[in-house]
Amino acid sequence: MAAVTGPARWHRNISAKIAAIPMIATALVIFIGGTTWTVVYSFTNSKLLPREKFIGLAQYERLWSSNKWLISIENLAIYGILSLIFALVIGFILATLLDQKIRYEDTFRTVLLYPFALSFIVTGLAWQWILNPDFGIQHVVRSLGFENFSFDPLYNPDIVIYGVLIAGLWHETGLIMCLMLAGLRGIDEDIWKASRIDGIPMWKTYIFIVIPMMRGIFITAIVLITSGIIKVYDLIVAQTGGGPGISSEVPAKYVYDAMFLSQNLGQGFAASTMMLLTVIIVVVPWAYLEFGGKRK
Q: Do 119 and 257 sit in the same domain of this protein?
């Protein structure tokens, strides 16, 4: 049967294509248009209101000479890399434990997933109290007789980002665990039987057989974690406010502060553009390898 080509192909599913027009128009006008507007005005001297006075790369030069921005990038790198690694590892380990058909599995799954139902603001405030040295973990341990115990990461500029990381992992690990558990439950039981018959150790079965089969689940988890990393803002605001000093600043907070506190739209647009560029550098090669490679 001859393939449908030319104008006839465009008339197929015409109703669905017409229904998609509002969505496409919204994406073009709001997302692409808004992004283009932000990039263009990052080259201007916009303050409280947008100005069409172009100043070249001056906003970017100021951005990369700012110590606050450099600390923000460093914190995002530390938080992002560790969050991605630990969330995947801890989520997968918890999923493998629950996959053993343990008693009260539903209860454990609900308890572990519950933090994800909370907002980052609630999570940040809760862990601000837990890590407070006056009545948090440090106070409890010292009251047990360990007078020299010290654990106050939110008040130490050198390790404050790791205190934020603890709260972030507590919030997101439950969701990753559920995704991994769904992937494990989708593995054919015959694979487990065959590995036992062949005498393959369980850890090798997971690493060399199960994990490669769960590639789609891992990609989904990575996308979810990465999107949360790039836009991390409310957790920082609720837990540390960017302090002590500027030691826990992140790019999203830098953008907010520049645009609404310093009333410097041009600087905020420049920082936003750099965040967008980072996403593009990561996403485009991955999309090419993921989809373009398969097509070839």
A: yes
Quick: pLDDT tens for 12-42. Answer: 677 777 888 888 888 888 888 888 999 999 9
Nearest by Cα to 235 from 114, 88, 82, 116: 116
What digits encode the pLDDT tens for the residues 80-95?
999 999 999 999 999 9
Residue 64: domain span: 59-295
The helix-helix angle for 265-287 and 215-230 (nearest 10°) equals 170
Same domain, 152 and 242: yes
Q: Is 244 left (phi over 0), alpha (psi -120 to 50) or beta?
A: beta
Residues near 33 by beta carbon (within 8 Å), at least 6 away in sequence: none
- Pair 123, 213 in one domain: yes
Angle value at C-alpha 136, between 133 and 141, nearest 5 degrees: 85
Residue with token string 């001859």: 2
Query: Could you tell me if 170 and 79 lie in one domain?
Result: yes
Q: Is residue 49 situated within a structural domain?
A: no
**Cβ atoms of 48 and 260 closer than 8 Å:** no
